Structures are given as structure tokens and as C-alpha cells.
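Sample intake sheet
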Amino acid sequence: MGPATGITRQATPDDIPTIRGILAAHGNDGPVTRVDIVGPYVRHLVTRHRTLLTEEAGAAVAFGAVVDAGLAVHLADLFVMPDRLGRGLGRQLLAALFGDARRRTTFASDDPRALPIYVRAGMMPLWPTLHVEGDAARLAKPPGLETVAAAPEELAALELAWTGADRRDDHRFWASQADADPFLVLDRDGPVALAIGRARQVSDVRVIDRMRVRPGADPVPSVLAALRRTDRGTRVVASLLGPSPVLPVLLEAGFHVTDRDQFMASDAGLIDPVRFLPNPGML
């Protein structure tokens, strides 16, 4: 096959059905039988972040999106139509997305073709991201903690204070998702963690969409409290980075790993893998 060709341009809201078609070609979108999670997510990427579409002969063949996560530019998505793989379109699109950003992160899938592209783009594989699922009713209730509903502005203000990253727009989006539940975990000193629970598109299992624990705090009790709140009798999913001390506790309680990605970054110090449950799309 010849080298990459095509025209790369900024995506618009009119391109959302096309982008969803590319995602569906890779099994990352499908019929909406319960609630639509993918559609609002793609719209947020297109309208609030940087999303590019590559076309050949007027037909869309690839798309990608990056999120300004404050601490780094995060590659949210990069997909090439299956019949166009191996032509360098991904590398071409990745270079356009990152531009001159030096601090870079992403989650690489198990596709062996993806990781080398990201390494060449200045990121190294650091930790597996393990998506674990289980029955939170089997978890012991952590003493001295309570959970309370909170506005997305409260969560964004805490994240800014704890990390220096301003994610106000993203917290508003996360709070707008289907059956979203933004909340705080409180100990005697005040907020010890912020989290967002929500529904899933393909099942009634709920998910902790994202969570941060206060710097220096033990993450295990807070994560257990958040899982218990998010699970409404249907089971719950959470994403843990490899060094998380929560993982063995959950496995002992009967949780199991359902999927995995590889967290990659230009600098291992960009995030705290122990006190952060990431959103795989938006960090």
C-alpha cells in the first residue's frame, strides 16, 4: 500500500454520525438500547476539545481527538477505518492532534499496532489500566466516611486545588451524563475524594466514571465508599491503574478484571496512579 494521503480537518457537530460510524466499525459503539453514552461523549469532544477528521476522496477514513486535561494533552481517541489500516493515517493524524504539546498521555488498547505509534510520539508504557467489575454490597462499609451529592463546580474546584488542573467544562459534562451522580467522600477533615457515577450504554451495571482522592490520603477506604454508593444493586465497574492498593482488596471481595488498557505518558510524574481512577477517554 502507498503512504498516507488525505485531508485532515477540524470536525464539526455535523460529523458526529460519521465519527460514530468509525467507532462502530471497531466495535466501540452500537445500537442504543438503554441510554446513549457515546453520542454525548463525541459531541463534547467535538464542541469543547480538539477533534480532527481525515478524508480521502470525500469519504471519512479516520478521526482522532485530544483533551486538554490541564496536566497534559490527552489523546482520547484515534481510529482508522479497518480497510485503511497500515497506510500511516494514524501517525499522520496523531502528529496533527498533538502538535507541539510536550506533556502527552493516552490509553493504548491491546492492539499491538497501537503501542509503537504512541512510543514514537513520545509516550512510554507505564501501568496497565484494569477495568474491574463486582458486587459492591460485598465490600465492608469504611468507618468514619460518608458520601454526599455535590455540584460539578464543587468537584472541579477541589480538583483544581489538589492538582492545579482546571476541568470545569469536563466536570459539567460528566455531571450531565445518563443517571450521573457527582458526589464527595467526606472524612472528619472534609472532602477526601471526588467521584462521578453513571449508567452504562450496554448494560445495567453502573460505573465510577472518574475519581480523585485527596493527596496523601489512603485511597482504599474512599474507593470502597464510592463503589458502595455507585452500585445500586446491579454491580459496578471501576478503572484502576496498576499500582493501586485497591486492586487486591477488590479481587479478594470477588471482583474480576473484565478488560485492560495500557496507560502511556511522556512523564511518569504527570498523574498519581495510586489516588486516581481515570476516565479512559478523557483522563
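Comment: Residues 152-163 form the longest helix (12 residues). The chain has a mean pLDDT of 95.
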